[in-house]
Amino acid sequence: MKTYKKIVLFDMDDTLSDFKTGIIPASAYRAIDLLHERKDILIGMASGRGHFFFRDQRPDIKADAFVCVNGQCATVFNDIVFEGRVTDADVKQLHTMLEGMQGGLYAVNSFKGIKTLLDPKDPVMALAHSVTRLKDYGSSFSDEYTYHLLQAAFLPEYDEMFEKAFPHLSFHRYYEYMVDIFPRETSKLRGIEAVAKHVGLTMADVIAFGDGMNDVEMIEGVNYGIAMGNAQPEVKAVADHVTDTVNNDGVYKALLYLELIKEKI
C-alpha cells in the first residue's frame, strides 16, 4: 500500500455535485485530478450514498476510499475497514410503527442496493417517495444481506416520538419527509477514523468537505473541516473554513487556498 501524508474526503450531494442536477463542476474534476497527481493524498468520498451508487452511477469519480451510507460501511481499495448494521429487532419495531401511521420504510445495503420494506400509504408520504426517486435497486439484495441503514418516510411532527422510542438510533432528516436511520454509535466520523487507521494515519491528517446536517460531526471532528458556501448554518458554524458554493468552484477554491493544488483556472 502507498504511503500517504493526508486524506481528503468529500461529501457527494451539494458538496462535490449539485444535488438537483447531479452535475459535478469541471473545476471539481480538475481538483481531484491534481490531488491524484501528488500521489501522497488518499482521496475519498464520505456520503449518505451507498457503494452501489458510486460503482454503478458515478464511476467518473476517482476515489480510493469510500465512507458510505453515513459511515455504516467504509472501504479502502475495496477492503472493508468498518461496517455497522441495523438490528432485526429495530427493523421489526420500526416497521410496525410506520405501518400504523401509513409511512414508508426502506433497507439499504451499501453494496447491493435499496429494498422496499413498507410502501407509504399516506398521500404526503407517497409524494415524498416520488420526489426523492427512492426505489428498489439491486435485484440480488435479499434478506440475507446486512441492513447497513434504513430510510423512512414520516412527518417531522413524529421526530421526537421516534427518537424517544429508539434512543440508540440516529435519525437524520435529509428531505422534508425522508429520514436516514442508523445506530447512534456509528457515523461518518467513525468510518473516517477506520479509514485513517487502515492507512497508518490519524484524524490529525484528515481534511473533509461537507454541507448538510449529517456532516456536522465530521466537519467538527476531522483536523480541518471545510463547509461549502451553500452549507447549512450549523455546518458553517463548526467549520475551519467556509469556501464558495458547489456551483461556484467551491471545492477547487478551497484546495487552492490550502495549497493542496497549485494551478489556477
Going by CATH, what is the homologous superfamily of the largest domain?
A: HAD superfamily/HAD-like
Structural category is alpha/beta
In the CATH hierarchy, the third-tier topology of the largest domain is known as: Rossmann fold
Largest sheet: spatial strand order: 5-4-3-2-1-11-12-13
Say how many strands there are. Answer: 13
The assembly state of the depicted protein chains is single chain
- Domain module tally: 2
How much of the sequence is in beta strands? 15-25%
Number of helices: 9
Tell me the layout of helices and strands.
Blueprint lengths: L5 E5 L15 H13 L2 E6 L4 H6 L8 E4 L4 E4 L2 E5 L4 H13 L3 E6 L3 E6 L4 H9 L17 E5 L5 H7 L3 E7 L2 E6 L4 H11 L7 E5 L5 H6 L2 E4 L5 H6 L2 E2 L7 H8 L8
Parallel strand pairs: 1-2, 1-11, 2-3, 11-12, 12-13
Antiparallel strand pairs: 3-4, 4-5, 6-7, 6-8, 8-10, 9-10
Helix pairs in contact: 1-9
Please explain how this structure is put together.
- By secondary structure, this protein is α/β, with parallel strands linked by helices.
- The chain has two domains: 6-84 and 187-257, Rossmann fold (3-Layer(aba) Sandwich), CATH 3.40.50; 88-183, Hypothetical Protein, Haloacid Dehalogenase-like Hydrolase, Chain: A, domain 2.
- Helices cover 30% and strands 25% of the residues.
- The chain has nine helices and 13 strands.
- It has helices spanning 26-38, 51-56, 88-100, 123-131, 159-165, 188-198, 216-221, 233-238, 250-257; strands at residues 6-10, 41-46, 65-68, 73-76, 79-83, 104-109, 113-118, 149-153, 169-175, 178-183, 206-210, 224-227, 241-242.
- It has an eight-stranded mixed sheet with strand order 5-4-3-2-1-11-12-13, with helices on both faces.
- Helix 1 (26-38) packs parallel to helix 9.
- The two termini are 32 Å apart.
- The mean pLDDT is 91.
